[in-house]
Design brief:
Blueprint (H helix, E strand, L loop, with lengths): L11 H13 L9 H9 L4 E5 L3 H17 L21 E5 L1 H15 L2 H9 L10 H8 L13 H45 L6 H25 L10 H29 L6 H18 L1 H5 L5 H29 L2 H30 L6 H41 L1 H20 L18 H33 L4 H9 L8 H11 L9 H25 L8 H13 L41 E9 L13 E6 L3 E4 L7 E2 L2 E2 L5 E4 L11 H8 L13 H9 L6 E4 L18 H8 L9 E6 L9 H5 L4 E5 L10 H14 L3 E2 L22 E6 L1 H5 L5 E6 L9 H9 L15 H20 L3 H4 L3 H15 L7 H9 L1
Parallel strand pairs: 1-2, 1-11, 2-3, 11-14
Antiparallel strand pairs: 3-4, 3-10, 4-5, 5-8, 6-7, 9-10, 12-13, 13-14
Helix pairs in contact: 3-4, 3-5, 3-28, 4-21, 7-9, 7-16, 7-19, 8-9, 8-10, 9-13, 10-12, 12-13, 13-14, 14-15, 14-16, 15-16, 16-22, 20-21, 22-23, 25-31, 27-28
Length: 954
């Protein structure tokens, strides 16, 4: 039994061996590995058909390509090929991305339901008569508006889609708002506790309590400093990582700041009595001295004098005390009591963090002559950066949480300003989403390279839209919580109570008292009463957040189901002859086969071999928060779903070198068990591969986009268990058991590959052609249909694929005649004689030290003015044809037929120009003949695609 069924994932080399056996019946020993395995795979002379991303545009163009491949080699001018001779049946792999997956899944589902002979005949002719189109093609044409088949405002399909979007958005917002409310209430509880304990609570006059606060704060600070002293001078490969620093240094320092701020509330916040400077300096020196003593053993093994270092560290303690005292005197001498309280609560903990940074800066300067001081400075600089980020974030959060209701009061006093603020924030967020445009498509060519005024506005809205909306949401939510629980602004209540001003709580709050405590009580005015109300609200909010997080499925209540169900109905349902749709919804659950059923099972291997392509569905595993610095631009890795396995080659790092990820073993799980009780379905794989709009989108990801998309539930991606070792207990589940953590990871770009669950999205967010995984498999003969949106022929997607293949797989690819391909002609221009395709060369022999090089037949749609009349007419109407934007997923009849006809005409004419003696041969002979034809007409100097594609993409 394979390891993957026993709970351990199989590695990439095992996957490649198993695929060789599944497809070719070739048994490759486990002793054959590395480049020897690559050469063995190369020797199988396998072929692949790759269909690029590009939504329905790519799918419809590729339909014509499939029909032409099924037609050739023709028996005569008017007779298509015999099924056993058809070129379509000679491919071993079908590699699809995004929109290419629509038509690829349509073909795979069809071949799993009918024989190749039946499929080929219906692709090439009309068996039931010239006026009766085969149902699988007819239904595609009928459902070219697959998202809303009946378009228009009066269409039930339109309103159904709108209802789904609104329902899911409400549920996600219920999750988000309950979680944010819980966090805000916890913050308010901390703020009230600081004031209550420090100034007016029962312990405020207790010397023992005050010394306890001081001691607890000092203890937390010195424990954090002990971590710094223990780790910052360790050698390479030693010490804790960033996560441990946050847990054992930053968090402790922040909590220490809270305790010390509480200790300072009464003497400083209200009485303007700053502690003496000797006391503050003594605290600093004492904390720093004790932290050094606790870490003294570490310094004994360092190449420096530990006593001299102790003296310098104590000087840093004096600096810490001086900075803290300066801040206290600034409060005492410049602000009155209420303002002093507010400033102390808001800026107290961040000021202590700044004092820590200042002290460490002085220490760094004093130790700059020591051995390995460069490494120590870098460590302390990174620590300072995290301290600064935490201080700014904490200050902003406290301001919004404490002043939210006060800001709401100010806004409510001027309803016009309130309306402008709310609509302005909403419009900023909405405009940011609307103007993302091509940035979410997953196609490199659609990311835009022209810097214009509109582009700059779009960029600005993308940057600030999410933050503006989130800030407004926090302000409004904070104000609502204050009025619901306290009857007024928390800040006003705290200040008024402290200065004994006459303040009353609203009648609504009295009713809340009756509801919570069962009797009528006087309105509370003390911090203790406020704290009780906040605690009750916190418990209710936390309970609601927990229930919603466990009840709302992060996968089911995104846009994914709406998208997938309609794709399945249009593309997979088109091949389902015995379809029995629900009479009300029009959906049939049997339209969507499990992906492991689209390939012959073991019992079928002894039967006459069927012509069926092994389908590789290319997706993206988002690692926006990757620790691999080399992936900071791509922010993603390739993830494949096949009829046998699902996983990624870049999971499970094999080793590390100087902190950088080394080789990866890969991790794959059986598709029959992965992602659900019955395994993952073909429809889910197809929809995930086409999940173009998602908070995390590989190289298209940016902080504001992730936040905007998450807040507005623009999520087509899918969460699944990690196929790697981290997912040993989750890989068979259909998604996370709770929703809030995955949502937070999406919203703040924290997706990675080393947790129990992973986030998958459009394959084009990594590589949009499906070429990458075929080169990994050493496929020698590749036909590639690239119908991505690239009206200017920048070849961005091709350059991206070639670049990643060179970097990751060590295989170079050249396109000597790439410049022969030309964009469409414009109205009034002369017809073009440029080719629609070119030949690329895959240099396997250079990479593997032997074996045969491979060929790529690269097909790219264009309009030359020589096409048939139907195509010409449509091209004259639509100047963007054949590169309509991917956002256009609503094709009408003429648009659908024009793209299909163009795909068929390009490949049909291409293959018709090859001598019949060659057509009857294998794919290699055909590609070789095409290469010779291109050489005969070549007028440009050959260039390597690795540089040409990359330059064009940039």
């Amino acid at each position: 039994m394979d390891k993957d069924f026993l709970g351990t994932p199989i590695d990439t080399e095992t996957l490649l061996r198993q695929e060789a056996f599944e497809i070719e019946g070739e048994v490759i020993s486990h002793d054959v590995e590395g480049v020897a395995l690559n050469r063995r795979l190369n020797g199988l002379n396998r072929s692949a058909l790759c269909i690029s991303g590009g939504g329905i545009r790519s799918a419809t163009f590729a339909l014509g390509v499939l029909q032409a491949l099924a037609t050739h080699p023709k028996r005569s001018a008017n007779q298509a090929a015999n099924p056993e001779d058809a070129l379509l049946g000679r491919f071993r792999y079908l590699s699809t991305v995004s929109g290419g997956g629509y038509i690829g899944s349509w073909l795979s589902a069809w071949l799993s339901r009918e024989s190749f002979r039946e499929v080929q005949q219906q692709l090439t002719q009309r068996p039931e008569g010239p006026d009766v189109e085969p149902p699988p093609i007819r239904d595609l044409r009928r459902d070219s508006n697959y998202l809303t088949p009946q378009v228009g405002l009066t269409s039930v399909d339109t309103w159904t889609a709108a209802a789904i979007v609104v329902r899911n958005l409400v549920l996600i917002w219920l999750l988000v708002i309950s979680a944010l409310a819980t966090a805000l209430l916890l913050l308010k509880i901390v703020l009230v506790s600081i004031s209550w304990v420090g100034a007016t609570g029962p312990l405020s006059d207790s010397p023992a309590a005050r010394w306890t606060l001081l001691g607890a704060g000092a203890l937390l600070l010195l424990l954090g400093q002990r971590y710094t002293l223990t780790n910052y001078s360790l050698g390479n490969g030693e010490g804790g990582n960033q996560t441990r620093f946050v847990k054992f240094d930053l968090v402790l320092a922040a909590l220490g700041g809270v305790f010390l701020t509480t200790w300072a509330i009464l003497p400083i916040g209200w009485d303007a009595r700053a502690p003496s400077i000797p006391l503050v300096l003594a605290i600093g020196v004492g904390v720093f001295f004790t932290s050094f003593v606790l870490s003294f053993r570490t310094h004994l093994h360092q190449p420096h004098n530990p006593w001299l270092r102790l003296a310098r560290w104590m000087v840093a303690g004096l600096v810490w005390g001086a900075v803290v005292y300066a801040g206290l005197m600034l409060l005492v001498n410049t602000l009155y009591a209420p303002a002093r309280l507010l400033a102390l609560v808001v800026f107290g903990p961040p000021w202590l963090l700044m004092a820590q940074i200042t002290a460490e800066t002085i220490y760094v300067a004093a130790t700059s002559s020591e051995t390995r001081s460069d490494a120590q400075r870098e460590w302390l600089a990174r620590a300072a950066g995290l301290f600064v980020a935490a201080g700014i974030g904490a200050t902003a959060t406290v301001v919004l949480g404490l002043l939210g209701s006060r800001l709401m009061d100010a806004l409510l006093e001027d309803t016009t300003y309130l309306y402008q603020s709310l609509t302005g924030g909403g419009l900023a967020a909405t405009a940011g989403i609307a103007l993302l445009g091509s940035g979410s498509s997953g196609e490199g060519a659609e990311r835009g390279v022209v810097v214009s005024s509109l582009a700059r506005v779009r960029k600005l809205l993308q940057i600030v839209g999410g933050q503006v909306f989130l800030a407004l949401l926090l302000i409004v939510l904070s104000g609502v919580l204050d009025y619901l629980l306290l009857g007024g602004s928390l800040l006003d209540l705290l200040l008024a109570n402290a200065i004994k001003a006459p303040v009353t709580i609203s009648d609504a709050n009295t009713e809340l008292d009756t509801l919570l405590f069962g009797q009528q009580v006087d309105p509370p005015v003390s911090e203790g009463a406020l704290l009780l109300h906040l605690l009750c609200g916190f418990v209710l909010s936390a309970a609601l957040a927990y229930v919603v997080s466990r009840s709302v499925n992060i996968n089911r209540f995104s846009l994914h189901d709406l998208y997938r169900n309609r794709l399945v109905r249009a593309y997979l349902g088109a091949t389902h002859r015995n379809r029995k749709p629900n009479p009300f919804t029009g959906f049939d659950l049997e339209d969507n086969p499990l992906i492991n059923t689209i390939w012959p099972q073991a019992a079928e291997r002894d039967a006459p071999r069927v012509s069926r392509l092994f389908h590789v569905v290319n997706c993206t595993l988002n690692v926006v928060s990757t620790r691999n610095k080399a992936w900071q631009q791509r922010k993603a890795m390739s993830f494949v779903i096949t009829p046998r396995h699902a996983g990624a080659a870049d999971l499970n790092p094999r080793n590390t070198w100087r902190g950088h990820s080394g080789r990866y073993t890969g991790a794959y799980r059986p598709s029959a068990l992965y992602g659900g009780k019955r395994g993952i379905s073909l429809g889910t794989a197809m929809a995930v591969s086409g999940a173009a709009a998602n908070p995390n989108m590989g190289y298209n990801s940016s902080p504001s986009i992730t936040l905007l998309f998450a807040l507005f539930n623009i999520r087509l991606g899918w969460w699944l268990g990690n196929p790697g070792l981290q997912g040993n207990h989750t890989w068979r589940l259909s998604g996370p058991r709770q929703a809030i953590l995955p949502w937070l990871q999406e919203a703040f770009g924290l997706t990675t590959s080393d947790r129990a669950y992973i986030n998958l999205s459009d394959g084009g967010h990594f590589e949009n052609l499906g070429l990458y995984e075929m080169v990994r498999r050493r496929v020698r003969l590749i036909v590639l249909s690239d119908a991505g949106c690239d009206p200017d022929f920048t070849f961005a997607d091709l350059g991206n694929a070639v670049r990643k293949i060179q970097i990751d797989l060590g295989v170079s690819i050249t396109f000597p005649h790439l410049d022969q391909l030309q964009p469409r002609i414009r109205p009034g221009e002369k017809p073009s004689t440029a080719p629609y395709c070119t030949i690329g060369h895959i240099h396997y022999a250079d990479a593997d030290g032997g074996g045969e090089d491979g060929y790529i037949l690269y097909i790219k749609p264009s309009y030359h003015g020589t096409e048939e009349a139907g195509i010409r007419a449509y091209a004259n109407e639509d100047e963007r044809f054949p590169h309509d934007p991917t956002a256009d997923q609503w094709f009408d009849e003429s648009q659908f037929e024009s793209y299909r006809s163009l795909g068929f005409e390009i490949v049909d004419e291409l293959l018709s120009g090859i001598p019949k003696t060659v057509q009857g041969g294998d794919l290699e002979a055909i590609l070789s003949a095409l290469s010779q034809q291109l050489k005969a007409t070549d007028t440009v100097v050959p260039m390597r695609a690795a540089s040409n594609g990359a330059t064009a993409a940039e």
